[in-house]
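Below is how a single chain appears once it has passed through the pipeline. First comes the sequence as given, then the structure the pipeline wrote out for it. We keep one example in the README because the format questions we get most often are answered faster by looking than by reading.
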Amino acid sequence: MGKRDTRIAFINPVAAARSAGPRTPSGPSILDYLNRPRPTWEEVKEQMEKNKRQAGSSTLAAYEEELNKKFREDLDKKRDGVIKKVKRKKRKKEKSERVKKEKRKR
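Resulting structure:
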């Protein structure tokens, strides 16, 4: 038995591109890119100063704000619980004092 022919035709990609003809530009040219409007050095400095003043990421600020919100909610729940306990003790104490006074009157 003979071996199979494993050779494949090689096509030179550069030659194939040249034979297809010139390509139509699909976007801005290099000159358009180089002639784009750019900020002046003063504007760049202002932008850098603005970023320095901002100091920190907005994601971190949002995360800290969320933590503060959760902490406040938790604190409010705990505070309400403590206030309820104090009120209960106060009512109980007042009730026991009334009962003692009524016993004394008898």
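Residues 15 and 21 are 10 Å apart (CA to CA).

See the next section for the split statistics.
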